[in-house]
Amino acid sequence: MQSKIEKRVLKLLRLAGNNPSPEEAERALLKAQELMAKYHLDMVPGEEDDGDIVREYAYWSGNICYYHQQLGQIISENFRTKGFVSRRKSDGKRAITFLGERIDARISAAVYNDVLKILNKYLGEMRKRDKERRASGHYSKARAKIERDSFVLGFLDGIDKALAAQVQENKWELMVVPSDEVNKAYLSLHLKWKRTEFRTADQEKYQEGYRKGKKYRTKKLLGE
Fold first, then answer.
1. Which of 60, 81, 90, 201 fits as disulfide partner to 76, beta carbons 3.0 to 4.6 Å?
2. What are the distances in angstroms from CA 164 to CA 132, 149, 205?
3. Can you give the residue ranges of every domain in the chain?
4. Boundaries of each DUF7168 domain copy (predicted)?
């Protein structure tokens, strides 16, 4: 059964997903974080959330790239969950997984999938241009990959900075920290997944991605 806050966030993401403008979809991320933070700030103990610690799978595939994991870390650090890679019991596929209180885990998974859809849209546009440029004979696959990877790293850094800035501005630091119960459950898994730092080889594409990711930094979102 969905809670009121979960329904609001999912509706927000659904409306953003139906909008053809990536910019409108991007604004949904900060709004989702705002709703989650205010929910925990105003919540009366025992209200809405049952406190159960659950796993929610956001993305599953036989091929999980570095940026799938990196995005999972960014979302988990800003939405009160712990992110890691695990295997789904249903089919054994590797999945980006969020461990947290039921509402937080579901919101993290929904937000993750929404942001990944936006990123894939940008990458799809880049691959289309790359194909056209390679057809001219003056562009290599290796160069195209370097540019895409640099764009992705910039995009993720931009999102990370935007979410961190909103947390700091609104003094939500304690609102995005997982509960003690979630931390204990995560430690019991004995995982060693840490954030990995990557170097960019194309500063121009990195900055392009960074600017697009940091568009999340808006004062008023979706007219509210």
1. 81
2. 37, 23, 22
3. 4-216
4. 57-189
